Each structure stands twice: as structure tokens, then as C-alpha cells.
Amino acid sequence: MAELLAYETWPERTAPGKALAVTLYWRVLARSAQNYTLGVHVLGCGLESYGARNLYPGWGNYATTVWQPGTLFRETYWVRLEEGRPAPCLGRVRVAFFLDDGTQAHLPVSDAAGQPLGDAAILGRFKIAAPASQAAVPPATWLARLGESVALVEARVHPERTLGWPPLEVDLTWSALGPVGRDYTVFLHLLDEEGRWVAGADSPPRGGEYPTGLWEAGETITEVRTLDLTGVAPGRYQVAVGMYAPEDLVRLPCYDGGGQRLPGDFIPLAHLEVLPVRSRLYLPAFRNWGGPAASPEAPKPARKRPKGK
């Protein structure tokens, strides 16, 4: 029915309670026998809708049944973000055509190569910032620094949360010391006693919901990461974390609290021992950066069965 030629969003930084302008550039491909509603949604954390405009094109004055093939037009929609939504995070826009009736049937969407994208197009990249009342405060100290603009403020490894079997949970608190300027991937690795990689989990911060390229000076970013240890042989291991540029896999240099560069450009978080599967538990971490080592509760003695029963 139509081709989306281009789009624009403005401003590059918005926040809950504020609005985002979305400009769409269309070319009509074919006539439509039905009037479709255009849905423009601003998406935030978890791709949840933070605000939307659902209306006929032309602000109700240019229904799809009167479109003529070959026509070019553009429209700008202001979408107000709902207050109280989680932030900061990466913002995106969802665009779709649907029938505003009991079926809610959507037009299928495909990319320029003809590959199906489902029932909507997901567009854009902008920052949904935290409310001004949540002022960013840079940390006074940190555990380690990565490059010039990122610091690891706190890290906690939680073997007590996984007394059964994997995954292992790790809480990380990052801080932006300045504008980061590009997107980095966080790696969480399990290393053997010779420093060799055994298992790992690499992904952007918060699973891509808040890339480092959007971080601003003074912001604190928390996330929980998991490390799947399924199939890891029994033994002693080290948990390590760091960042690298996905384009060239070059790691950000890592420095300890005293400014000394860390070997391998990774931050050692804790040591742990993986026991045989029949034991089905982890021994406590020997070192936990940012907090005391966690210890699982001692097993309770088995209750004896009274005689005669």
C-alpha cells in the first residue's frame, strides 16, 4: 500500500513527561479499499509503549481510501511520553497500519529487500533520560576504570543465589565519568587457573536497552548479568568482566583503583569452585569486589526418625 522512504525523530534526548517529534516520509504504492489507522508508538525499556498516536493520516483528513499511487507526502507527529516510566534507556519508534475494529488486523511490513519484519517497523535511536529530579552524581570512588569515561563502581557475585546449578548471577554498577561516545559490549567471562576462557556471556549493557553511546557524565547504570556454567568441568575458576568495541573486538583498557593497568584488560571479580554435578552447589566466592564474600547457609543436619515409627 505504501513505502516509508525516510523518517526523522527530534530531539535526540527526551524524557518521561516530555514529547518526541516523529516525521515520516511516505510514497503511495497502491490504492486501498479500507481505511487504515496509523499507529506511531514511542518504545522504551523492554520495547514497551511509553506513548502513542493512533489516527488516520493527514490528522484524519487523508484517509488511505483516497490515496493515489505515486503520491509523496510527509507528516510530523508529536508523541508525549507517559510520566513515571522507567528511564534512562534507549528509545525507538514503532510504526504500523491497522484496522481500528474488532480484528485489529495489521498490514504486513517488509524491508527494502523484501524480507518480512512482522506487523510493524521499529525505527530510530534516541535517549529517554531520567527525570531532572534524579540528578546524576559522579561517584567519589570506584573499583576500576575502563578507558577514560567508564568506571565500575560495584560488583557482587552471588553464588548463594544458585545453590542448585547454573546460571551464576552478577550485579554490576557502572558510572559514566564523561560522554562515552560509542557503543561497547560488556563481557562476563569464566577463566580457568591458567587464565583461559571457559564460559562467557557478551552483550551490550542491559541487553541492549541502554547502550554506552547514550550514557552521560555522572550517570549510574545498574544491571544483573548471568553466566551459564552448564557443562563446566569441576575446578577452581575466576569471574572477570570488561568491555570491548564490537567492530574490532579491542578491549577498553582497565585500571584498578590505584591507576595501575590490569593484565588482560579485564577486571577480576571473584574466585569460585565448581563442584561435581552430584554436589550441585558452588563454594562461596573468596573475593567479592564492592562487598563481603557471600557464603551459602550451612546444611542443616538430617532429622532422625523416631524408633518404632
CATH architecture of the largest domain, by name, is Sandwich
Biggest β-sheet description: 5 strands, mixed
Strand content: 35-45%
The helix/strand order is: EEEEEEEEEEEEEEEEEEE
Q: Would you give an account of this structure?
A:
The protein has strands at residues 2-10, 13-14, 19-28, 37-43, 49-55, 72-80, 89-98, 109-110, 116-118, 121-128, 144-146, 150-158, 168-176, 185-191, 197-203, 220-227, 235-244, 254-256, 267-274. The model is unreliable at 160-164, 280-287 and 291-302 (pLDDT under 50). It is elongated, with a radius of gyration of 26 Å. The protein folds into two domains: 2-128, Immunoglobulin-like; 144-274, Immunoglobulin-like, CATH 2.60.40. Helices cover 0% and strands 42% of the residues. The strands form five sheets. A five-stranded mixed beta sheet has the order 2-10-7-4-5, with no helix packed on it. Strands 16-13-12-11-18 form a five-stranded antiparallel beta sheet, with no helix packed on it. With 309 residues, the protein is an all-beta fold. It is built from no helices and 19 strands. The N and C termini lie far apart (78 Å).
Produce a short descriptive summary:
The chain is built from no helices and 19 strands. The protein has about 300 residues and is an all-beta fold. The strands form 5 sheets. Strands 2-10-7-4-5 form a 5-stranded mixed β-sheet, with no helix packed on it.
Observed structural traits:
Immunoglobulin-like, 309 residues, 2 domains, 0% helix, mainly beta, five-stranded mixed sheet, single chain, elongated
Give the SSE map.
Layout: E1 2-10, E2 13-14, E3 19-28, E4 37-43, E5 49-55, E6 72-80, E7 89-98, E8 109-110, E9 116-118, E10 121-128, E11 144-146, E12 150-158, E13 168-176, E14 185-191, E15 197-203, E16 220-227, E17 235-244, E18 254-256, E19 267-274
Parallel strand pairs: 2-10
Antiparallel strand pairs: 1-3, 3-6, 4-5, 4-7, 7-10, 8-9, 11-12, 11-18, 12-13, 13-16, 14-15, 14-17, 17-19
